[in-house]
Amino acid sequence: MFPIIDKEILSSTVSKFIVKAPFIARKRKPGNFVIIRVSETGERIPLTIVDGDTAAGTITLIVQGVGKTTKLLLSKDVGDEIVDLVGPLGNPTPIERHGKVACIGGGVGTAELFPITRALQEAGNTIYTIVGARTKDLVILEEEMRGCSDELYVTTDDGSYGRKGFVTDQLKELLDRPQGVDAVYAIGPLPMMKAVSLLTKKYDVKTIVSLNTIMVDGTGMCGGCRVTVNKEMKFACVDGPEFDAHTVDFDELMMRNRTYVDMEKAADHDCRRLNVELQGGVNNEVR
Q: Backbone dihedral region of 30: left (phi > 0), alpha (psi from -120 to 50 degrees) or beta?
């Protein structure tokens, strides 16, 4: 069991957890992730390690409630425990001194981007960070990202905060500067990462993406996270999760990630129905 030491609500659907996991805290590096199971009968899901404290023996996870398991995790509080937590898994992000680096986080992908951005700055890079979200309420870790960036830009789809538009709008302006950009690291929804990749390919700028695929065991055994990279099959959990964006077949990956959409909706529906029953209420939405 892995006890929750602290919890902070970042938005209506996103919370930050500090979890006691001393062995993982000692070994984790930027880009590593864990596989967790919230309950004995629950599914296994991957979560990126956002931060860690070796002395305290803790790791930080940031979770967005999008399905049954993540919403169940959001219902946990300080003193509760996570049943299983395995890691660190995956390959650490390749941290190099490129020069001028654009770090792009979309939605909760900003949480995954944070330790990578910090490591890139510590390696001597000039960091231009772009944080994107659908709306102001979903912008997370703005001040933390500002602390490890030379320039920080915020974009929202609806224009409720920062620049109205997409992260690619701001990225294009950076790429068009006389000094340009030497490398790009992008983490977020697959359509966002695809759009970033298509843009940077025109400028011939090295681009690294972290792929958020379906995972079960995180050790390459199940094959659920397979992705085509440079026309070869790779497993995101053991070959990644970071890959050269210009070699990833995003269309195939997006289609594969929709494999269990109907099952996920059914599980989420059952979860909401149970919550209503426990609260003794009636909700037409879950009928």
A: beta
pLDDT 10s digits, 37-49: 998 888 888 999 9
Give the residue-averaged pLDDT of 11-36: 92
Q: Which of 205, 184, 186, 206 is nearest to 250 (CA)?
A: 186
Taking the CA of residue 53 as centre, how many other CA atoms within 13 Å lie in the half-sphere pointing to its CB? 12
**DSSP-derived 3-state class of residue 159:** coil
Lowest mean pLDDT among 116-120, 205-209, 233-237, 243-247: 233-237
Report the CATH number of the 100-257 domain.
Answer: 3.40.50.80
d(CA 19, CA 1): 10
The token pair that represents 68 in the structure block: 């049954």
- Element (DSSP H or E) covering residue 84: strand 84-89
Domain 2-89 is found in CATH 2.40.30.10: yes
Q: CA 38 to CA 85: how far, in whole Å?
A: 9
| Matching fold, domains 2-89 and 100-257 | no
CB neighbours of residue 150 within 10 Å: 13
Which DSSP category does 248 fall into? B
Q: What is the per-residue pLDDT for 79?
A: 92
Question: Averaged over 207-216, what is the pLDDT?
Answer: 87
Please give the pLDDT value at position 88: 92
> Do the Cβ atoms of 217 and 236 come closer than 8 Å?
no
H or E element, residue 196? helix 190-203
Give residue 22's Cα distance to chain centre.
Answer: 22
How far apart CA 255 and CA 261 sit, in angstroms, is: 10
What average pLDDT does this structure show over 87-91? Answer: 91
